Amino acid sequence: MTDLVEVEAQKKAEGFVERINQLRQQIGRVIVGNEEVVDGVITCLLAGSHCLLEGVPGLGKTMLVRTLAEALSLSFSRIQFTPDLMPADIIGTTVIDETAGGKPIFEFRKGPVFAHVVLADEVNRATPKTQSALLEAMQEHRVTVGRTTHAIEEPYLVLATQNPLEMEGTYPLPEAQLDRFFFKLHVPFPGREELHTIIERTTTRYQAEVQRVLSREEILAMHQLVRTVPVARHVQDFAVRLLQATHPEHPSAPAKVRRFVRTGASPRGAQAMLLAARIRALLHERFAASLDDVRHVAPPALRHRILLNFEGEAEGIRTDQVISDLLAELPEVQP
Amino acid sequence: MDPRQRELRQLVRAAQRAALRLRLNETVARSARLLPWPLLYATAGLTYLKIGRPPETAQTWLWWGWLLPWLVVLLGTVHCWWRRRPREMGALALDRHHGFQDRVTNALAFLALPEGQRTVFMKLAVADAQAHAAQLKPRRAAPMCWPQELWLVGFLLAGLGGLAVLEVRTLRWLPVPPAPAPVLLAHDDIELFRKLSQRMQDQSQDPETLAGVHKLNQLLEDLAERRLDRAEVFRRLAELERQVQSRSKEDQASLAEALQSVARELEHSGLSRRVARALQQRRLDDAEKALRELAEKLKKQRTRPSAAELEKLRQSLKKASQATQGRSKRLEAERRRLAEQRKSLLRKKREGRLTPHEEQVLRDTERRLDRLDRKKRTADRTREHLSDLDRKLGQAAEDLRRELGQAAADLESAAEDLNRLARNPMSQEEKEELLRRLRELKELLRQQGQGGNKRLQRLQRFAERARGRSGQSGQRGQERGRGKNRDELWQSGKGQGDRALVLGGGTSEQLGREPSGQREKPKSPGSPSDAREPGTGHNEDLRGDRSELGGKAHDVTAAGIDTGDGTASSQVIMGAAQRGFAGHGYRQVFQDYQTVAEEVMGQEKIPPGYRFYVQRYFQLIRPRE
Predict the structure, then answer these.
(1) For B85, nearest residue in chain A (alpha carbons)
(2) To the nearest 10°, the Cα dihedral for A190, A196, A202, A203?
(3) Which end of chain A, N or C, is more open, meaning fewer C-beta atoms within 10 Å of its C-beta?
(4) Contact B119 A333 (CB under 8 A)
(5) CB within 8 Å of A92: residues ≥ 6 apart
(6) Alpha-carbon distance A273 to A47, whole Å?
(7) Contacts of B380-383 spanning 24+ positions with Cβ under 8 A
(8) Are A123 and A81 in contact (CB under 8 A)?
(9) Residues B238-259: what's their mean pLDDT?
(10) pLDDT band at residue A267, thresholds of 50, 70 and 90?
(11) Number of CB atoms found within 10 A of residue B43's CB
């Protein structure tokens, strides 16, 4: 009996890997390279959380999200954040409508956040008020308008993008909002060969067709499956110690953290690392998360959660440097 | 065993072995890091020892101090070995080496959980790790690494070895040991004792005495060479005295015992009873006399004893002749018995079977054997000394059967032996003289020790003058002797009374001879002077008046007249005072006066201290060559 359960579980795991590979494959038809970003986005999808994509314009961030949404049997909406965007523009508004009998009624018209996959483009261009409107939806998966709360159907994935170049006229995302993103992914500039491929695909009549490979139910089932992947005590301990070391006041914090970091990551950072490690382990056909998995997911999980102080910003220190130093100094296991 | 179980065991064992190897590696590395410290200390310490040559206390501290860095090494090594390490250490090393992505580590972590707590995925993770169990290589995952510090350790060891064999020669000024204060005896006195010792050596035949004289010669030699200090000299003198006395006493006792045993046998016969009693009381002269009377009795027909008496006498004489030998034999038998006993006890001791009581018995036996050996040696000497007497008594016993006359002659010969024994009982006198000389030497050294260097210098000057090597003494003597005018009379003593030695000056040889009429006659017996004229006679009574201890001085007046008949004693004495104590004439005069002085000292009661000074005086004025 037990063996049967194990066999079934193994099959599920194998099926999981196969489906995700198919998803990758579909995305790969449109998006050139950026495997890590794609994996990051898929991880966020499987974690049931949200992702912040940062990169210069024209790197295919929006394309990626759109392609992902096409590959999944999920609804997709795109919000272009502008400085004049109002909260009602994203969450919806109540309008007066008439019934069939002509009776006027108030009807809530759902905003673009009520899709399964929401692309919040250039989210740092909107005002904080508008940004915070997205906050509740991202965190609670529901929107409250007046006295009515409107749930957002699962799975719910918000993929926000922001442009690092245009600092004027932008509103940096507050820490509270940043903390709600599961990952922050840097979209790198493509390499030479990738550029060739991009140009060939986008300047010709090449039209990739993306097939739907995952249904909503499958995604929800995957959500459950990834949470059954075990994490050994020493791996969890490593993630916890890593989190603690990001806080400058903690005894285990290295010198660089003490010098350049204002605030360390919140416990959401540890949650993100461990969930992402589980997902990664499963994607690599393993049945338990490893220390390497935690190491791998630590940068996207923590980089937006560590805030540098003035000296750090003045020195041009990047949070990725702090995280890599931490990973190098922190012992993997402790007695 | 179930394959799954086997794989699980492999997993566990591989992880344990890897962990052990990692622990060992770390410990070796720690030891290698700490080892240079004691070696550096040793290098520095050895350098200091070689060059600085510190005192022993500092060296001891240095050696003890070397323990400290070793203690640090030991503690550091022990701490590193026993330090708490993560449980997953070995498994992680395996995962890293084989690229298993923590499969082994996770599997072991899940296996540590109770069965009920393991989820499906945990079991799958364990199964996944088991599948790779056979590939695990702890040796490669945790290879033994030689720490780099071992090079330094090797280098330091080599340096230490080189330093140890290196010899650094340094000059060290050693304090000159203080030379023992030599006992200074005047050369003159050493010569005196050498001559005395030579005389004893020439006169004595007793080996014990000769041995004692030889030791005395050695002592005098060392004194002359100034090799000995005061304590050593007195120690050797005391030892020599003790040896001579003990030997002397032993021989005396042995002789007495032998004569007692002879006397016991002679007492059985009525004829020899008188001899026996005299011998028992150690009156050798009376024993000799009694023996001679017995011989006379045997010779004369009328006083000849009966046959029965003769037979008894014969048996007594025979047994008496064998008495000394019998004693030696008894001693020998006893000695043999003790030797056997000692031998068996020693054998037991070698075999380890000796009890404490037997050990005590062994020690007692050895002591008794020593005493018996000494007794036997003394008995043998006694037997040797009495051999003639024994032989003659035995001969007399034999001759009593045949020829009484011959027996009488034998008894007379035995009497002569008794006479010889009385005169020279085993060279007792020689030993006594040696003892006397030793005591004189001791007293002389004691006196000179009290006097100090100045006294010694005075003695040395005196010795030079005694040999006639200094002109000063002669002049001084002349001045004293002459007074203002050479022809003036000398007066010694009080001068006013009728007892004064008046010596005239000039070259008259007769000067100094007292006219018999003016001289007060001494009380001691002596032949009256037969001088025809004043100054020509000679009174053989040289002793003069008896010494008066009351301290009164007798002044004697004597006037010598030059008769031209040779050098007078007084002239000789005066000449000696001026020119030294040399010459045949002085020797004659000295011998005369010394003989008298010794006789007087032997007869009169003179305190030992006074005796010493008189002896010393004559020693100092003795003739020199």
Answers:
(1) A335
(2) 140
(3) N
(4) no
(5) A108, A109, A110, A111, A113, A114, A143, A145, A150
(6) 11
(7) B380/B328, B381/B251, B381/B254, B381/B426, B382/B251, B382/B254, B382/B255, B382/B257, B382/B258, B382/B324, B382/B426, B383/B258, B383/B324, B383/B325, B383/B327, B383/B328
(8) yes
(9) 78
(10) very high
(11) 18
Q: Which chain B residues are Cβ-neighbours of A290 within 8 angstroms?
A: 95, 101-103, 105-106
Of A83, A141, A74, A145, nearest in space to A113 by CA: A141
Q: Which amino acid makes up residue A28?
A: G
Nearest-Cα distance to chain B for A290, in Å, is 5
Beta strands in B460-599 (DSSP E): 490-491, 501-503, 558-559
The pLDDT tens digits for B297-335 are: 888 877 778 888 888 888 888 888 888 778 778 888 998
Crossing angle between the packed helical segments B103-111 and B89-98, to the nearest 10 degrees: 150
Q: Which of A158, A116, A122, A112 is nearest to A138 (CA)?
A: A158
Question: Chain B residues within 8 A (CB-CB) of chain A?
Answer: 84-89, 92, 95, 101-103, 105-106, 109-110, 119-125, 127-128
Q: Which residue has the tokens 């008066």?
A: B548
Q: H helices then E strands: how many in chain A?
A: 14, 11
> Are A230 and B119 within 8 A, CB to CB?
yes
Task: Determine contact, residues A109/A97, Cβ cutoff 8 Å.
Answer: no
pTM flag (> 0.90) = no
Count of beta carbons in the 10 Å neighbourhood of residue A61 = 27
> H-helix or E-strand containing B532?
none
Higher pLDDT, B148 or B254: B148
For residue B549, pLDDT beyond 70:
no
Q: How confident is the model at residue B22 (pLDDT cuts 50, 70, 90)?
A: very high
Chain B hits for A333, Cβ within 8 Å: 86, 88-89, 92
Q: How many CB atoms lie within 10 A of CB A203?
A: 8
Min Cα distance B85 → chain A (Å) is 5
The band of B361, judged by pLDDT with boundaries at 50, 70 and 90, is very high
The mean pLDDT of A223-240, rounded to a whole number, is 95
Q: Does A220 touch chain B (CB under 8 A)?
A: no
Other beta carbons within 10 angstroms of residue A56's beta carbon come to 13
Does pLDDT of B514 surpass 60? no
Test B103 with A234 for CB contact under 8 angstroms: no
> How far apart are the CA of B93 and the nearest CA of chain A, in angstroms?
11
For B111, the closest chain A residue by CA position comes to A232
Closest CA to B535 of B555, B518, B552: B518
State the ipTM, two decimals. Answer: 0.87
**How many residues are given for chain A?**
335
To the nearest whole Å, the CA of A91 is away from the closest chain B CA by 40
For A275, other C-beta atoms within 10 Å of its C-beta total 24
Q: Is the pLDDT of residue A211 over 90?
A: no
Question: For residue B87, which residues of chain A lie inside 8 Å, CB to CB?
Answer: 335
A232 in B contact zone (CB under 8 Å)? yes
Nearest CA in chain B to A1: B120
In this predicted structure, what is the pLDDT of residue B490? 41
CA distance B449 to B453: 8
Contact A286 B125 (CB under 8 A): yes
Indicate if the pLDDT at residue B516 is higher than 70. no
Contact at CB, A333 and B102, closer than 8 angstroms: no
